[in-house]
Amino acid sequence: MKLTDFSDDxxxxxxxxxxxxxxxxxxxxxxxxxxxxxPCTEQLDLSNDLDGILEGFFLLQxxxxxRNYGGILGIPEARQMGADILTLHPAQVMVxxxxxxxxxxxxxxxxxxxxxxEAKETNSKVKFICPVPGYDRHFTICxxxxxxxxxxxxxxxxxxxxxxxxxxxxxxxxxxxxxVPKYSNPTGHTYDKETVIRFSQLGKIASxxxxxxxxxxxxxxxxxxxxxxxxxxxxxxMQAGTEDNLVMLASTSKITFAGAGISFLGxxxxxxxxxxxxxxxxxxxxxxxxxxxxxxxxxGGSNLATxxxxxxxxxxxxxxxxQKKLQEALGDKGIAEWTKPEGGYFVSLDTLPGIASKVVExxxxxxxxxxxxxxxxxxxxxPENRNIRLxxxxxxxxxxxxxxxxxxxxxxxxxTDYLLSH
Length: 422
Hints:
Elements: H1 8-27, E1 32-34, H2 41-45, H3 76-86, E2 93-96, H4 100-122, E3 127-132, H5 136-144, E4 148-155, E5 158-159, H6 161-170, E6 174-179, H7 193-200, H8 202-205, E7 211-215, H9 233-240, E8 246-251, E9 263-267, H10 269-279, H11 288-298, H12 301-330, E10 337-338, E11 347-350, H13 356-365, E12 368-370, E13 387-390, H14 397-420
Parallel strand pairs: 1-12, 3-4, 3-6, 6-7, 7-8
Antiparallel strand pairs: 2-9, 4-5, 8-9, 10-11, 11-13
């Protein structure tokens, strides 16, 4: 029976039961954390063979010694690996350090002078479209450059393209859009083919220097044996003549060692040459020894697929646990909706309007840390105060189960309080 169909007396009885359960959780003095999508220790252990894999042999196929200076764009073998992951040509790819976030930030920093010059001429602000719910660190980058953010709903097919095309047609100071196109953070949705094709046409609608920031962070992180297929945006963009509008990113952060991986940035050869020139004053090059370690460890697509299947085997039980707990506790109550991702690191949970922050507060009081309500929206403001991002990857299965038990009680309690007051 739906909680929304309860009478006030029934809601008060339910509220009393939930308060009793909540008190028991508080007495248990739990300390559990579902805030960020970090790999668990067992996932990190899958890559321990990186240590010592070079066995003292530091030469590339062309004879270059990776221990020495040079090569901002990365070693050829790693550029090829990035091209395979992003479906690009090696000449369109550079290899960075352990964080694709650094490459994103630097790309925005590279573009900001020309964007700001246009903003000054038009007495306006630089603006970015942000599909929501979305990735909080994308929003943080915009805030650091004082870029105004515009919310656009993320649908199951991808961002609402009708809205995006209309916005771009009307406002020449919209200079970019953030995207997590495969297994989106936090919903887990993969953009469909039609959406990708429409993205390839945005450069014809948008003003000069528009950039699609295509953050393909979860491109290899499947939770099914029949993974979703993401259509080739660079191929479509090259046919449309809009490849200069596209910046693609990925990393091995959740493939090997989260704090010691390598990252990839892909764009047109013209853009890549300009970005290399921008980076040159600040560095000689990224860690080529680590690039070679990763090439040796993950060499060949089949090796990567085999490695990621091991990740899948560790994560599957956790995501199954999330679905089981939510369905059993909330499935027929009409007070919450959640996504059922086929890959990635998150589950997106929507509560009744106005209570997400209360659920997070209650959970914290019972010893379970959740991602702050609003984190999946620009400026930390969810207009409806409904969305909570669940990150089930890091805790053990037993800790995850305890945390979910707390979550569902907190959500029911907050929902009951809400229904009694409305």
